[in-house]
Amino acid sequence: MVKYIYKSVILLFIFAGALFYFGHEMKTDMAESTAEVSVSEETNPYMQLRTQGKTINTLYAYSGTTEKVVRESITPIDQSKKLSLLISGGKSRLINLEYRVIDKETGEVYDTGEFHAIGNKQKKVDIVFRYGFKTSTEYILDIKAVTDLGKVVHYYTRLKYYLDDSHLDEKLAFAKKFHTDTFTKSKGVELARYLEPSAKNLNNSLADVDITSNVDLITWAGMSPKIISDELITIKEYNMETACIQYNYFVQAATAAGKEIYHIKEFYRVRHASGQNFLLNFERSMEAEFNPKMAGMNSSQLKLGITSDNKSKMLTNKKEDKLFFSRNGVVYQYDMKSCRVNKIFSAFSSKAPYNYRAYNEQGIRLLKVDEKDTLYFCAYGYFPRGRYEGDVAVVLFEYTAAGELEELVYMPMSTTYQQLNADFEEYGYVSSRGVYYFTVANTVYAYNMAAKHLKKVEENVREHSFMTMEGANCYTWSSSLSKGYGDNITIYNLENDEKKMLYRPDENSYIRLLGVIEDNMVYGNVRQADIGKMKDGSKVIPCYELYIAGTTGEIRRKYSRKNAFIQKITSNGNVINITLCKKNRDGTYVKSGEDTILNNTENTTLRFEYSSRITNKCLTEWYIRFPSSYEMRLQPQWGKDVTSLKTSERYVRLEQPKVAKYYVYAGGKITDSYENASKAIKEADEQMGVVVSSNHQVVWERSGAFLQNMIGGLELTKTSAEVSSIAACAHMVLKVNHLDLEASEVAKKGETAYEVLARYLQRPLNLKGCTLDEVLYFVSGNKPVIAMTGDRKAVVIGGYTESQLTIYNPQDGKSETVSRAQYEKIFEEAGNYFIGYMTE
After folding, report:
1. N or C, which terminus of the chain has less Cβ within 10 Å?
2. CA distance 231 to 240
3. Which residues pair with 352 in a beta bridge?
4. Is it the case that residue 515 has pLDDT exceeding 70?
5. How many Å from the N-terminal Cα to the C-terminal Cα in the chain?
6. Cα 696 from Cα 31, distance rounded (Å)
7. pLDDT over 80 at 535, yes or no
8. 411 near 395, Cβ under 8 Å?
9. Cβ–Cβ < 8 Å for 300, 631
10. Is 50 exceeded by the pLDDT of residue 28?
11. Quick one: which of 358, 336, 360 has its CA closest to 346?
12. For residues 73 and 418, is the Cβ–Cβ distance under 8 A?
């Protein structure tokens, strides 16, 4: 009998465990219980790394295992393979540590180690790695720690091993000297040698200074800032010749309004070669900490000071006597009657040391103030304190007129703030029905606050097929999200939950979503027979007519041009720029001109807006300007901070990206993301950065190619009556990737080289528009590139030196060494149409 009781109990536990597991993994709501908690301080310690005698790379604690996505630092190690962990800060302490050295691509663990019973006063842990690292290869270091509160946290960096001297000391010393010299005006002449001044730089703001700025801005213009914090040094990217180094610190400076505090981030790209150092890039951002006591009483304006954040959303209640705005991870409410500023929400505690506040990896989105004066907003990114300390998430809040802050839903993600910030679309909307609409990682969600339920509106959306009519609070999308044209287009009104469908004109045509302009949608009609290719082989979906439509589908304007098609449009303000094309006798299309349409709209004057002033000392400073009728009768003061909030156990888990995206890392952060690899590469080249895919592989890196390389194992495929030039080139690439196919199997009439590769390889890359220098990065990594040389003619680039290329020409039936400069011109004349690929 006892045996059966035990069996029943065991089954009950298994059932309960299964419920927990599957409930945890499903993207559905969890059980809810509400409680009021106080807003706590930061508890997790941080650590810095000491390598080759240098203290660098401040690491912050993450709650989850996100080792593949954290690219915030890279730590060079030398042949000693030694690394010291310097532990600091936090209300809790670390008692146990484990580390893993992980392959960045496969996730295979190469080396492990443990440190148990760390003492109360022990602030340093020394590691000597046992693994035989490959030189100049990136690895992931995952440091797993247990705190005295029983919490498990992770610290991440990347490792790069060099047997020979990589000149870390010299690179850091150069950045240190440049950084120090900027605080001395007399060093301006010496600093000027490294700058590249540009006439395009207005040199009127200290918020964003770079290598093209004049030396006066580099040396802080009329200001004399004093450093008031540690100078945290982080290496962002590293190789034998170059290093990307970030300085992160706080300064205080006297201004006309009083002493102000600023958060400074400096980025250096340094090259060490032949015993000399060169400055390849320099950027510095300067962001003022908001203080209401700096307000301009004479002009009745709140001072924001030196900042590049001069476009973020501001909201008011219906009476317009309370203004809501956010700065640097803090949500403020300004009471215009009492002239008091209340802190509603803050990423950091009021007592947070500067070394915590330096890691400001969080954003704020103000959404709506309703009829009851309730503010809805979301905080997203890395949470440095509270119940979600160490998590990366999106959290939706409401703040009531009674001064109560409540968490409505918590949505964790296995990513970093940088990637989430790129994936989290700016537009969000809260309807009067209590539904919050937002887009993360190409999935559009709707969260019903009353029903506490999350649903997908659409998933796998793309920028050319799903758009926001922001002025009308509507979404619009094509029935074919992958193509952007199809049988119909949907206009979805988020306020009243109504959908309007626009259909194709007939069964022989498609309707194509072209764009949005203010509160209107722009679409065109396409004859199926007209869909074809441009002269360079890229696909074109030409519209024979264009329409501008309102939220209910009503036609507001029609446009067409005789003997011309609409290839694409871009909108800027109330102007639509149209690219036209025409059809050649051979059936291909060429660009034939441009046109514009002016969309007539009523001008609206903002009652609350940002305004700037320029002074001799601080240059451009920003203010919040109020309606002309408002008079600031009292000097603004700090009001009451929110010290507690209502929380719930309700959360929903957002999905990871499914649509391939390419992120540009430059200046120590993600600067942009694209669905098109070539656009990302061109942007990264311009910014001296790196391109990383949505599955966290490095796609392309500035200065990442060898001076020369020759791919082994390439075999020539010749053209024939059955095998075109494009098919032959694709066959060569597939054979290198160990796909045993006949060339005649690969051939398919009318397909582009990209389309052929896409049938067999998981990650082909359309590199159209990239330069030869840019695509040789792939050849450097032993991935041959297909290059178009003319109409339906292609070659495979299989090797290169500084002056020559090795190409495999299926039409001539031979591989040959040719002039790099000569073929660079041939590729340019063919439209720089290259096709590459990524391996898993």
Report:
1. N
2. 25
3. none
4. yes
5. 55
6. 33
7. no
8. yes
9. yes
10. no
11. 360
12. no
Residue where the block lists tokens 């619009």: 476
Distance between CA atoms of residues 641 and 399, nearest Å:
12
> Crossing angle, helix 677-686 and helix 772-780, to 10 degrees?
100
- Quick check: 346 pLDDT over 50? yes
199 burial class (0-12, 13-18, 19+ CB within 10 angstroms)?
exposed
pLDDT at 17: 43
Q: How confident is the model at residue 605 (pLDDT cuts 50, 70, 90)?
A: low
Residue 27's pLDDT band (cuts 50, 70, 90): very low
Say how far apart CA 81 and CA 555 lie, in whole Å. 69
Q: Is the pLDDT of residue 603 over 70?
A: no
Identity at 657, one-letter amino acid code = P
In eight-state DSSP terms, residue 688 is: T
Short-list 511, 506, 508, CA closest to 523: 511
Q: Is 700 exposed, middle or buried (0-12, 13-18, 19+ CB in 10 A)?
A: buried
pLDDT tens across 617-628, in order? 999 999 999 999
Q: What is the pLDDT of residues 348-383, one digit of tens each?
A: 999 999 999 999 999 999 999 999 999 999 999 999
The pLDDT tens digits of the residues spanning 326-341 come to 999 999 999 999 999 9
Burial class of residue 432, CB neighbours in 10 A (0-12, 13-18, 19+): exposed
Question: In the beta sheet, which residues pair with residue 807?
Answer: 797, 816
Gap between the Cα atoms of 127 and 615, Å rounded? 52
Count CA atoms closer than 13 A to 438's CA, side-chain side.
27
Task: Report the alpha-carbon distance of residue 166 to residue 239 in Å, rounded.
Answer: 8
- Per-residue confidence at 601, pLDDT binned at 50, 70, 90? low
- How much is the pLDDT for 69? 73
Q: Give the list of residues 6+ apart from residue 297 with CB closer than 8 angstroms, or none.
A: 632, 635
Which residue shows structure tokens 């400055």? Answer: 279
DSSP string for 450-515:
TTTEEEEEEES--TTTEEEEGGGTEEEEES-TTTSEESEEEEEETTTTEEEEEE-SSTTEEEEEEE
**Cα–Cα distance for residue pair 107/637, rounded to 1 Å:** 53
Neighbours of 329 (CB within 10 A): 19
Among 264, 258, 320, smallest CA distance to 292 is for 258
Residue 191, classed as helix, strand or coil, is helix
Any residues with CB less than 8 A from the CB of 599 and at least 6 apart, and which?
517, 518, 520, 548, 557, 574, 575, 576
Rounded to whole angstroms, the Cα distance separating 63 from 356 reads 16
Q: How far apart are CA 584 and CA 468, in angstroms?
A: 35
- The residues, ordered by sequence, that sit 6+ positions from 684 with a Cβ below 8 Å of its Cβ are 664, 665, 666, 690, 691, 700, 701, 702
Residues in the chain: 840
358 close to 248: Cβ distance less than 8 angstroms: yes
Two tokens, residue 496: 């009243």
- What pairs with residue 245 in β-bridges? 235, 268
**134-193 pLDDT per residue, tens:** 998 999 999 999 999 999 999 999 999 999 999 999 999 999 999 999 999 999 999 999
In a 13 Å sphere around the CA of 647, the CA atoms on its Cβ side amount to: 14
List phi, psi (to 5°) of 14: -60, -40
Angle among Cα 178, 180, 182 to the nearest 5 degrees reads 70
Q: What share of the chain is helix, strand, coil (3-state, %, to 5)?
A: 15, 45, 40
The Cα–Cα gap between 796 and 303 comes to 59
Q: pLDDT band at residue 4, thresholds of 50, 70 and 90?
A: very low
Q: How crowded is residue 113: how many other Cβ atoms within 10 Å of its Cβ?
A: 15
